[in-house]
Amino acid sequence: MNQHSPKASGQLGFDMFLNEAEAANAALRLARETEHLPGDYADAIPFYQSLIERHNAAMLADDEATVMHLRKEACNLARKLNGGEPGILADENAPGYVIARETAAPAGSVPLWGQTGTVVVDVEGMQVRVELDGMFGIGSTAMFWPGFATRAVDFEAPFLSDTGYRSFLGVAADPMPGITPEGFVSAVIGAYVRRELAGKLKEIDPRYRKHG
Q1: What is the dihedral of CA 10, 16, 20, 25, to 10 degrees?
Q2: For the residues of 104-119, what is the DSSP string, one character each?
Q3: Residue 76 neighbours by CB under 8 Å, 6+ apart
Q4: What pLDDT, in 10s, does the model give residues 109-120?
Q5: b/e for 179-203, b at 16 or more Cβ within 10 A?
Q6: Global confidence as pTM
Q7: What are phi and psi of 148, to 5 degrees?
Q8: What is the pLDDT of residues 44-68, one digit of tens each?
Q9: What's the first-to-final CA gap in the chain, in angstroms?
């Protein structure tokens, strides 16, 4: 049987045509969705800072619709800076990382909701370094509560895990209007210690202590 029959070739050509048309339509939709957004870093960075401030206000007001809209705006902004292509977090020079880095919370200050930064919290007598990813974190466009990563401050002291590291993704929590990022991560970590660890922290394995 001839696998390259005129019918098969015609079908392949038709499929390619549909794929090209779909790609063109997707590009057109993205262009319409991003036409109001800045197209260069000089304007994009202050614009993204304004998105963070609006996102922070919406999180404090428990306004989920606005929160998700602003996160989509952030992704569209990074996509536009990336020439309409995906891969906004492909490497450290990708648009998502650049604009998040340029608008990160200053060292020693608590990040706003949606702002990249690090804060140290004291929970259950344990110091925890919390890393917040901002509006580009994993699942940020699908889940209201953002994920975060935790690291031990003192690798000689008991911690949440025997590696000195633990991430929290897909947090399921009731609405908490007015709660700050610092208050949120402290509540989540505290609940984890009480429920999952039965109040008993873990000694960090000696293999990981040298990385502290």
Answers
A1: 80
A2: PPPTTSPPPTT--EEE
A3: 30, 33, 34, 37
A4: 999 999 999 999
A5: bbbeebbbebbeebbeeeeeeebee
A6: 0.84
A7: -155, 165
A8: 999 999 999 999 999 999 999 999 9
A9: 65
